[in-house]
Amino acid sequence: MQEQQVRVPYRPLNGIVLLDKPTGISSNQALQNVRRLYRAKKAGHTGALDPLASGMLPICFGESTRLAGLLLNADKAYTTTAILGARSSTGDCEGELSDERPVAPMTADQIESVLTRFRGQISQVPPMYSALKHQGQPLYKLARQGKAVERKAREVQIHELQLLERDQRSMRLRVRCSKGTYIRTLVEDIGGALGCGAYVGALHRDWVEGFADLPMHDLGALQSMSEGELQQCLLPTEAGLRNLPQIHLNAKQAERLRHGQAMFLDQTPLPSAAVFDPKRQLLAVAAIDAQGRLNVTARFGTKNPASDESA
Known about the structure:
By secondary structure, this protein is α+β, with helices and mostly antiparallel strands. It has helices at about 25-40, 70, 110-115, 140-145, 185-195, 220-225, 225-230, 250-260; strands at about 15-20, 45, 55-60, 75-85, 85-90, 95-100, 120-125, 135, 135-140, 155-165, 170-175, 200-210, 215-220, 245-250, 270-275, 280-290, 295-300. Helices cover about 20% and strands about 30% of the residues.
């Protein structure tokens, strides 16, 4: 008689795991793998990486998923390899190549003069192979059908663009940028400015703002860990708010906030801050307007049942 497989129950769980996503799988596949390891009822990630790309993918559990919007808006840093001498239908090495041509010798000064044009605020047209939607349909699905639609240019900020190394057919670049930046488009545009064309050969997300100095965890390593070791990799929700100013309420104020009552603080205006109670438990992410009113954008405070084994 065949043994019936025991179904492991999912549990309520709060916290963040900084996954070093491997290449070859989608961000959603990576998310589901980590979610199963932790048996978390609710999980989400904070900004997809293409299957081609590797690197930091914050996986949020439980109430930590309320940080998703905040982390989507965070600056990010990448290391990318640009392959010179051709264009790709997808902007990366998984697409069909076209417009192949020889790459003329270039001096470091010539490359630097081109890179300078792409620092600061620049305008980008999002690629067809992206998750942006047109009339409810993701652009990449339309692209796979051979269709192209007009996309509006958008302004993004390139805080850092540095040439790390180069040879005749490739360049390795370090990029620190604002939300909404497409590295594939950046590489394509640099290739166009160099006059030889370029596409992404490799892409690694080095960090997401707020987590730059924290270690990532390899998926294979996580899969071999014990329950206790997995728990040690779980960051508290407030780890995702380290770059925000902090507001510490007294007991009376904290109780008012928990009951959703209006509150005014003698505090300079802030666009966003992490709000804590006297025991340093995270209560909310909130803004303070010109009148001193505390306007909550995300509420926290559910006890983390990390050791709760119930469904």
